Amino acid sequence: MARIKKVLGRWEFQLLLFHVSLVLFGWPLVTFQDINRVKTMFVYLILAWAIVIGLLFLVSRSLAEPSPSEDLQNGDK
Fold it and tell me: In sequence order, what are the residues at sequence separation of 6 or more whose Cβ sits closer than 8 angstroms to the Cβ of residue 31?
């Protein structure tokens, strides 16, 4: 679990998440051509949105909680 928090807290992961979100919600992928495609696109947008929001939540939680090594350093002072 600490390894996942470490990865989520890195700025490189956050930059990657930003760029992946740009691609997921960009013009080439989000196009409405016919009524059947609109239904599929709606499901796609909701799922992509939910995944991005979930990852952002995990990133915020990993940044809010200090790591165990920081707790030990702060506790010694």
Answer: 37, 41
C-alpha 18/C-alpha 20 separation (Å) is 6
35-44 b/e (C-beta count within 10 Å ≥ 16 → b): eeeeeeeeee
Query: How is the chain split into domains, by residue range?
Result: 26-65
Residue 26: its pLDDT value, please?
86
CA dihedral over 45, 49, 21, 6, signed as positive or negative: negative
Model confidence pLDDT, tens digit, residues 24-50: 888 877 776 777 788 888 898 999 999
